[in-house]
Amino acid sequence: MKMVLRVDLSGGQVKAEPLRDDLIEKYVGGTGIGARLLYEEVPPGVEWNDPKNRMFIFSGPLGATRISGTGTFSVITKGPMTNLTGCSQANGVFGAYLKLAGFDGIAGVPFHP
User: Which of 12, 103, 108, 113 is the most exposed place for a label (fewest CB within 10 A)?
Assistant: First the structure.
């Protein structure tokens, strides 16, 4: 089963939940799934530094396989420069280790004192 780790830094809560099948079927990879979740969970008009903003970190569909370059991951959020949806990809082993830990992604609520 595909899982997402929900992390609420403001409330100090962490829980695992299944990743919805419709997201897996409609959106290819971590960037697509993260962008869709951002669209669903962040109301229109929310600024980048608003407590309602979210950050999503997702591995690609081939993460933790033996194929070269599958350790990549995507970070999706509303950014400070444009206040629009932004996505960045990075290489390394984080995406693979995320999958090996049993999660396809992390959905985060930022810390706001």
Answer: 113
